Structures are given as structure tokens and as C-alpha cells.
């Protein structure tokens, strides 16, 4: 806890004098200017005991010039334990009286003059001890009214670590006056020659002394501690970088790691300098990497890397056979990548395009999840055929019966019958695991004599055959008409020959 003024009196001053004394330097000590008696609280000595460690001791800030009747509070600071016993003695109790409250030292200004307060702290086992001194310059209320008390805040005890370079303590903060104060620093009491806090290079507790002068204010001096500690052994941190890109292989993916020391850039060794834990590193997606420093290094790393789906190049897709007599139109497929058989719905999806016009259909395979890409491949559809031995292959015009064609396709897959490229809607189709197609005489009677092609369509293929239409001369009206015309022509020809022969005889 910083020392504080319990009471202060302010004497109004003429602002017109500010410009004259804005750069005022320290003036000589005189009875008329008691404010220039400078007091420097803080560490003034360390008591060492033979074969014993020592503590660094200091007092928190307190103003050096105090009017009669006011008190200041200081706290004895040390690196020792909480059981430190603090005692304090004034060099003159008639000038400054001391009371102790734990580690708090309260000094009350009794009468004009200067008193030295010696504060000692010691452990109960006397292992540690330390001494700090504070000088109080007590002035009368009249003299204290000759200047306003400054408001100064020294920095808290700052500890920095030694690294071989000079360290500069923080500056004090002058809150009042807000400007115009002349601040000087030093490394010794009553020697204020530096415009900035001095620099230190040695390990240990140091004291910075300061003096602040401003027109209309009581000149104030003080000190504050600054510590340079021996840096404890600090382990270097690790830097981790995941390198490379990775695709699904079906096995664990072990990423390539670049692990280096943060300060030196040294490439570190797994098992000696760090340990690695990898998870979720088989399937496509996000895998996790945890790196834990060991040995001479410290630090943790949690990172991720991406496993991309594989685009198969060594795939094999085979199809089972669909029998013509089966009601199934889609064959069973087997999809492999390398030696691994893929699972339908998990590793791939498949769709079929049947082609009644061709012996082949097409299958589209879309790879999923751990795989990526699309493959379009043809497959052989069932081989449909007509039973030529049982089918009626010929039809005579005028016959009341039609023709019958037997095919080996399951009737559930039947689509249509086409003769010479024209669909026959009136065809009668029966059967179960085979197809019987009957073409009526009404569909045949208007067809010309000769050969006619027939194609029976199924969802996944077709069967081809042909049949012949022949003339029934006696039942064919056109044929009879032609015979009649030919007979009349022949009769007329005979008559013409007879008439011609008779005419030749008469002429003889």
C-alpha cells in the first residue's frame, strides 16, 4: 500500500509567477524555504548474516516533507515469508513518532526537524533479515502553506528478467501539477542528475531516487524499487505445421509434420522432443492431430487436416446375368476398387438405363463418401429369341387363322410387337415366363404377299423373327379376275385365228 498524506493545506499562489519560475532549479536550503529539505524513503541497506540468505527489503512510497500533525503510512515489503516481524525506530520521537501495525509503518510528524526512521524485518527463525530507512522532514503548518503538496505516483515494484542487456525502469507519474514539473532521477540519495530513470544490468533489487520541483509546490523527493531477476530456465515452445495433401486409401493416413523449436527453428524429433496423437484419420473428412512437447520443449498443438475422397482409377465393375425368363430387368453388379469390394449405398450408387433397341444397356455408377467420380459403363441385356420351331412362320391369304409367335421373354417385361416397323396394337399377348404373341387374320389380310419382319420388344431388349404371306389363288378375287380376263383374251385370240384361216381358204 502506498503511503498517503492524511492532511494537506494549500496556499493560493499568483499564477503570474508561473512563467518566471517554470524552469526553476533547486534552491538553497534556508529557514524561509523549508520545503527544499529533501527526504528519500526507500531501501538504504541490506543486512547480511554469515552463511545465510538475505531478503531485499524496501518501503512503499511516502512523501519526504510532512507538515506538523500529519501522518504518513508505509508498508514494509520483502521477499521473505508472511511470518516476517517488522520493527521500526525513530531517531527522534519528539520530531517523528512511529507506530507499527503488522507490516504497516505509520509515522506522525510531531515537531519541526528531521528524523530518520529505521525499519527492520526478520523471520522468526532469524534466517532472513532486512533493513529499510525513511527520512521525514517535518515543517510547520505555516511553512507548509508556502507551497502546495504534489500528487506523485511512483510505479509499483517492477520485476524484469535478466537477458544480458540494460533494463530501464518505468518513470514516476506526476498527477499534480499536470505540467511544468521538473523531474530528475538518480542512483544515489541527494544526487538527481538524470532526466530519465537510470539503466541497470546487474541482477538484484535496485533503487531509483527522484526529485520533483514545480513553482508553487513543495519540492518532493522519493524513491521506488526496481528488480532484475535471474531468468528461470524456460523451455522453448514448439511450432507445428502439417504439410502435404491426402486422399482416402482405406488405411490410416499419417500426415507429414514439420515440428520445430520456436526460438531456434531446430527441427525436432518425434519420441524425443514431442509425441503425436492422430484420430479420425481413415475416412474422408477432417482428421485431428495433437502434438505434445516433451523433453527440453514445452507446448501443445491441436490441429486438423483434410482427407479428400479418392478418385478410383483401378476400379472393376461386373454385372450378373438377367435371364430372359426372369421378371428382373436390372442385373446384380459388383464394384471393386483394387482388392476392396465396395458397398452399395455407402461407397456408390448406381442407376440403369435399359435399351429395348440394343443388346446393351448402360449403368451409371456415382462414387460416394470416401470416393468421388462417376463412371458410365455398358452391360449386356438378356438375349431374347423366338422359338422358330413352335412358331407359325407362314400365312396364306384368306385363311381365318392368324399366326402365332413364341418368344422366350417373361411376359411381365413385354412392351409391344412391331411388323415392318409398324406397331400392331391388336396383337394378343399371353404367357408367364415366356411370351405368346398372336397376330390376327384381320391384321394380316391387308398385308402384301411376301416376307415380313417382326420384332417383339421387352423392357430390356427384343427378339427378331419373320414370317411369309402367300397367295390363295382360288380365294383371291383379284387372282380370279385376272384368270377371267386372260380366258376371254385367249378365247378372242382363238376366234381371230379361225376367222383368219377361213378367209385364206376362200381366196384360194
Question: What are the salient characteristics of this protein?
Answer:
single chain, 508 residues, mainly beta, Immunoglobulin-like, five-stranded mixed sheet, 8% helix, rod-shaped
CATH first level of the largest domain = Mainly Beta
Total of domains: 5
Largest sheet: 5 strands, mixed
Strand tally, please?
36
* Protein structure class: mainly beta
How big is the Rg?
59 Å
CATH topology name of the largest domain: Immunoglobulin-like
Beta-strand proportion? 35-45%
- Per the principal axes of the C-alpha atoms, what is the gross shape? rod-shaped
| Oligomeric state of the chains present here | single chain
Q: Report the CATH architecture of the largest domain.
A: Sandwich
Give me the number of helical elements. 4
Cα end-to-end separation: 178 Å
Mean pLDDT: 79
Report the uncertain regions: 1-55
Portion of residues within helices: under 10%
Question: Can you put this structure into words, describing what you see?
Answer:
The structure is a single chain. With 508 residues, the protein is mainly beta. It has 5 domains: 15-229, Immunoglobulin-like; 236-308, Sandwich (Immunoglobulin-like), CATH 2.60.40; 316-380; 394-473, Immunoglobulins (Immunoglobulin-like); 476-507. The chain has 4 helices and 36 strands. The strands form 10 sheets. Strands 1, 3, 5, 8 and 9 form a 5-stranded mixed β-sheet that branches. The protein has a 5-stranded mixed β-sheet with strand order 29-36-35-31-32, with no helix packed on it. The longest helix has 31 residues, at 477-507. The chain starts with 17 loop residues before the first helix and ends with a helix. The model is unreliable at 1-55 (pLDDT under 50).
